[in-house]
Design goal:
8 helices, alpha+beta, eight-stranded mixed sheet, Immunoglobulin-like, Purple Acid Phosphatase, chain A, domain 2, 3 domains, seven-stranded mixed sheet, 542 residues
Amino acid sequence: MFRRNVFGRFIVDDFLTDAGTPSRRRFLQGLAASGLLLTGGGMLDQRVWANPVFAAYPFGLGIASGDPSADGFVIWTKLAPLPLARNGGMPMKAVEVTYEIGSEANMRQVVQRGSALARPELGHAVHVEVSGLEPNRDYFYRFTCGGERTMTGRARTFPAANASIERAHFGVLGCQRYEDGYFTAFRHVADEHFDFIYHYGDYIYEYRMVRPNERPLPVARVMPGDPDEIYSLADYRHRYAIYKSDPDLQLAHASAPWLVSFDDHEVDNNFAGLVSEQNIPPEIFALRRAAGFQAWYEHMPLRRASIPNGPSIQAYRRFLYGDLAQIDVLDTRQSRSDQPCGDGSHAACTDALKPDNTMLGEKQEAWLAEGLRSSGARWNVLAQQVMVMRHDRDPDPKKTSYSMDKWDGAVAARQRLFDTLDSARTANAVVLTGDIHQNWAGELKANFDDPKSRTLGVEFVATSITSGGDGADMTKAGQVVLQKNPHIGFFNNQRGYMRHIMSQGGWQADYRVLDRVTTAGGAVSTRASFVVEAGKPGMSPK
């Protein structure tokens, strides 16, 4: 049926009809017989590796679920029998992966089965968009390929839009530099059995490997191999493989569905739009951004709508949790203005006051404003990356300093956001933030120069999983900053994550901290808790 041409490729030589065109039936039969067609696919597909035999366990990077809706969610895995080898030890062929969705953890009641292709174009990642399930309930899932099976993961659908919901219990976390510590916090996160988890970004760090004695901060563990700073798609894939091989991280992914976003280190430190930290020509940096975004998509439980288009990706999106919450996941990197005054921290930067400065870009700003105006949810949640509230960072009581990478570097954009919250009469606004490797809690004031001005919402800043090492409960700089920023009510410099409980009557934010991360097995405790009463802007310690 097939012969090879001079280039060694298969060509069809006996599938022509009388009219001189291929007979589709005979053509597909021939492909199926040759193993080049995915059986049951109903369409011509790329070459498929039938009956694969792997060099090692193929699911070494774990499983995950994410982007839940009222009738489903995404389930994810990635074939990588040799995670740190070229192409994860996979041949350049598509592979069929089967999956099961169960209503019980023991998988005795399977409610859906199916298959998907793990394609080489996406590094053999699988993203299955599951639908047709019941709202607001747990489901369980697993994958099988080549006679190998994954662990069973727990996912959960969101409540139906406008359904009356009394309570939700979720986590917020991010910033997990490999060399700075062990991912013990993720094991504690898995034990929480959250309804969902928001990851605010900095899932990986793009820097070259740090070796012991190269910096004052201890190097808790050294990345395998000798990786340099990452630029190519292969580089980014390798870095994710190092991180995702961690068993504690895998447990956290398998424990609950994740809403994921990215910050800067998924591509390049402090990048802004197509402006890189090193001022690389934009058309060149676009290639690196495209590689970073593709690798991020490949390794996250995201829907098809977020497949990158070159250096662009649809990252901002909205989730409705019944009538309890509208959750807007924002993107503060892709369309933002370049950081004014050369980035860094400054006492007086007039460019930070430019009226056209933006953190979200015009399109995303309009989308967010319209969503806030039309929201009927009890809580309106802005899940984003960098600190919104004004933050004088200078430890000298007589000086000021503001970070140009935060919303302090785009004062007009912050004011437009605050004007929207005010004019839309946004109910119970809560901002969830990360990025700066410390715990903070504060209030969004209509006028930060007047502590008595109206409170438009609250902001809870989660610390890092590991970035920054063990840390300490309080620092001298932290004490001064609290005195200089009366709208900020809490600071802590330990590692960990946040636990949030929102209900119709109120919101509770728990700061969960570890006693250490530079050695394994750190213990977790609640350092502080704050409550927000529904209908009364502002927070108070519990």
